[in-house]
Description:
Blueprint: H1 13-31, H2 40-48, H3 53-64, H4 73-110, H5 112-119, H6 127-134, H7 136-144, H8 150-158, H9 164-193, H10 199-224
Helix pairs in contact: 2-4, 3-4, 4-5, 4-8, 4-9, 7-9, 9-10
Amino acid sequence: MPEAIPTAKPSTLKPLLFILLVVVMIIGVRLWHLDQYLEKERLRQFVAGYGVWGPIVYLVIWTLAPPLLLPGLPITLAGGVLFGPVWGVVYVIFGATSGGTLAFLVARYLARDWVASKLRGTRLATLDEKVAREGWEIVAFTRLVPIFPFFLVNYAFGLTRIRLWHYVLATFFGMLPVTAAYVYFSANVLDLFQGKFSKELLIGVLLLALVSLIPFAYKKIKARKGESLDI
């Protein structure tokens, strides 16, 4: 884990990199003629063939990913692709919340000294002061604004004095708008691999653009009140 963490400011760099990655994948699929294997209904029927085990395995993977320091975005996108825009949101939000909670508990009760040593000298080392002042709002803010890696901020909150259920609820509802946007987008992104730009995909793109504006709007509202949630 790095000893220094970038400045915590909303940035357009991550969305641009995400879009670039999608474009590169589309080009690769078209060049290698893999689009026949990336038909969304075929993939969902394949997963549905495993019955209840499909969602169970997915939820287990999501629960274990944050404590194992694995990135959450690919798992989120896979949820939309494999389960669709409705059940994808359900499985992703519960899986991400359970995974974030498990990492939180590991930091609080099992690996407190190790996590503290890794965060020493970084912006997240002062997170407890922000929690003492802002409470659950600082948790919700870090979920709305993915300025730090998901697994890292989960561990960091485990070192603070926030109550477990405040953390769980703020995590769940704070992630819900972003989760819904990314899942809806990924549920329809395979249309691009088929050479189609559907209206559902357009809605997904618009949702991503909308949730990217939430942090800026939220910070402006807080600024007008003379408050700040910067970390």
